[in-house]
Amino acid sequence: MYRAPQATALARAFYGEPRSRFRTGGASGFTWPVATAVSCGTFEITGFTLSQLLAEVERLSLTIEIGGIPVRVHTSDADFLALIERRYSGFTSEKTEAAIEFDIELTSSAFADPEADVRVTQLAGRWTMTRGDFRAEWEPAVRRGTIRQSANPYSIDAVLRIVHTLVLAREGGLLLHSASAIRNGKAFLFAGVSGAGKTTISRLAPRDATLLTDEISYVRRSGDGYTAFGTPFTGELAKLGENVSAPVHTLFLLAQGPENRMDEVDSAEAARLLLGNVLFFAEDEALVQATFHAAFEFVSRVPVKRLTFVPDSRVWELIG
Amino acid sequence: MSRLFISRNPRVAARSLGGEMMIMSGRDSTLYTLNRTATILWQAADGSTPLKTIVEQRICSEYAVEPGEALQDAEALARELASHEILDISEDPISPAGAAR
User: Which residues pair with A180 in a beta bridge?
Assistant: First the structure.
């Protein structure tokens, strides 16, 4: 039967995080730095604390290794270093050689537009990442970049997520809006929009399961398959994942329903739904194409199933 | 009705899976899925075959539809996809170099 040719737009495929997270959900114990004015003879420097000025010559460094990719950050602020050291507890590394290095320039001055969405663009080999609360630049060829932000843990967290999506896009990996856990040496991913049950399925995980994340899964190509890594990127559970990895066994698309059941998902639907859960921010045609094809490769190599469940730990008997 | 040529924009990513054609705009990451007849048009969009010929040879030969109605539908789709930079359309044949601009 003839049907008029039709194209259905499924909105923007990739999952983004356009808003500044720190404005909607602050971490406990964190307070915003207050701009101070320092008078020193005839000089007055606004926006820096005295300790920041005194520490200017000292460069403090920390390596944060997520997904096996070490990113080394440098700052002159000992308090900020301690803050991010706590934030990435379990994901710091003793390595001094890093794949990427960032100099962090702390500023207490307000950005021009605190409501501005994230933008990730590339010009002549230099990536620029901006949001209302930060501006970062990164030049992959020299493996270095800068981040300008205030002393909060959320801005650097967003920059790290973006940078990892760029790195993974080049090698066929993905950052997914999904929970993940290891059980019996196999990694299981649980994808779904907010409210689909990522946090619930994470909470219900049995003791012998290792939680990799309840919010953002880190997936890299590995031989003919994929490996999932733990991440410090948390959701409602507010619990960092374990910094371990395992081969990906199954991707479950979550839905809550009246009973526990598992259903096959055809490959086209799997690809379409997966694309809706891929984190990607860059306005870059080549990387958009690479990530699009990476999603298809993933569903051609990893079983994708729909997991409908009631909030009951018995669902894990179905998972494996 | 104008003489129209259509060409796939090489800057989009496209995959056919399970009989479903999915296309992603590199510009804004919008994902499009094409139905069967739209997929036929997409696959035949070589820039050198007039849309009218594609419709007659590929659509009307397979489906019971009036050529005029099918061409009208095809033109509407082509213009919509062109507005999203998924397809290139022209009243003249489109060279590969032109499509790859």
Answer: A189, A213
Indicate whether A40 pLDDT > 50: no
Query: What is the 3-state composition of chain B as percent helix, strand, coil, each rounded to the nearest 5?
Result: 40, 30, 35
Per-residue pLDDT tens for A241-287? 999 999 999 999 999 899 999 999 999 999 999 999 999 999 999 99
Please give the Cα distance from A206 to A164 (Å, whole number): 30
> Hey, are the CB atoms on A7 and B81 less than 8 Å from each other?
yes
pLDDT digits (tens, 9 = 90+) for B24-36: 988 888 899 999 9
**Nearest 10 degrees: Cα torsion A255, A257, A260, A263:** -50
Q: What CATH number corresponds to the domain at position B54?
A: 3.90.930.60
Residues on chain B touching A296 (C-beta within 8 angstroms): 15, 17
Point out the domain boundary residue: A128, A152, A170: A170
Q: Which residues pair with A210 in a beta bridge?
A: A182
Task: State how far the Cα of B19 lies from the Cα of A236, in Å rounded to an integer.
Answer: 38
Residues in A lying within 8 Å of B, measured between beta carbons: 1-14, 266-269, 271-272, 275-276, 280, 285-286, 288-289, 292-293, 296, 299
pLDDT, tens only, B42-90:
999 999 999 999 999 999 999 999 999 999 999 999 999 999 889 999 9
- Which position has the token pair 């409908």? A308
**Most confident of the following: A191-200, A266-275, B1-10:** A266-275
- Domain interval for residue A287: 174-319
Q: How many domains does chain A have?
A: 2
Query: What percent helix, strand, coil does chain A show, rounded to 5?
Result: 25, 35, 40
Q: CATH code at A244?
A: 3.90.228.20
One-letter identity of residue A66: I
How far apart are the C-alpha atoms of A155 and A28, rounded to whole Å?
A: 16
Q: A35-49, A53-67, A127-141, A272-286 — which is least confidently predicted?
A: A35-49
> What is the C-alpha separation between A166 and A127, in angstroms, rounded?
9
Longest dimension (CA), chain A: 86
Q: ipTM score of the complex?
A: 0.84
